[in-house]
Amino acid sequence: MVDLAKRRFFSRTKVDDSMIRLPWVKESVRFTDLCTRCGKCEQACETSIIRKGDGGFPTVDFSIDECTFCYQCAEVCPEPIFLSKEDRPWNANATINESCLAHQNVECRSCGDMCETMAIKFKLEIGKVAQPNIELDDCTGCGACVSVCPTSSIIVSN
């Protein structure tokens, strides 16, 4: 088995372990130590959001589409990286930054229209267009709001 920590020591590229990897990845394991970068999860993803990230390790790219939590990435993986489908997929949530059109007083509700769980609600404010507010308890971190945002103002992170 290759010791990736030693390999990274001599490499100019760093692997960002804080990236959104895949749903149901066990927190007790270090993803980069067990993932063999075989690409099976990329091929199995029904929305094609799993892409090669830093060091060739799979990561989720919400700019393409959303995660439907189909569990196919976990089912095809030959390594003991994933939790059971009954567990919570991840602790990821969306956040909206200041470049949001609504924060610039331009009416836009694209993110709210795509949110299946209705975690993004719009609050009326005097003298402004309705402002987005994410109910973190309702947000699944699916990323459906990310690709539809015209200003790329939404980020999904742990």
From TrEMBL:
* UniProt keyword Ubl conjugation present: no
Domain 4Fe-4S ferredoxin-type per the UniProt entry, residue ranges: 26-55, 56-87, 130-158
Report the subcellular localization: Cytoplasm
CDD domains in the record: NapF_like (cd10564)
What is the role of this chain?
Could be involved in the maturation of NapA, the catalytic subunit of the periplasmic nitrate reductase, before its export into the periplasm.
- Which top-rank group of organisms is this from? Bacteria
UniProt: [4Fe-4S] cluster 1 binding residues? 35, 38, 41, 45
Query: Pfam families in the record, alphabetically?
Result: Fer4_7
Entry-linked InterPro entries: 4Fe4S_Fe-S-bd, 4Fe4S_Fe_S_CS, NapF, PSI_iron-sulfur_center
- Give the residues the record marks as binding [4Fe-4S] cluster 3: 139, 142, 145, 149
Q: Which organism is it from?
A: Vibrio variabilis
Residue positions binding [4Fe-4S] cluster 2: 67, 70, 73, 77
Subunit relationships: Interacts with the cytoplasmic NapA precursor.
Q: Indicate the family of this protein.
A: Belongs to the NapF family.
Q: What is this protein called?
A: Ferredoxin-type protein NapF
UniProtKB keywords: 4Fe-4S, Cytoplasm, Iron, Iron-sulfur, Metal-binding, Repeat
Main location class: cytoplasm
Q: Which cofactor does it need?
A: [4Fe-4S] cluster
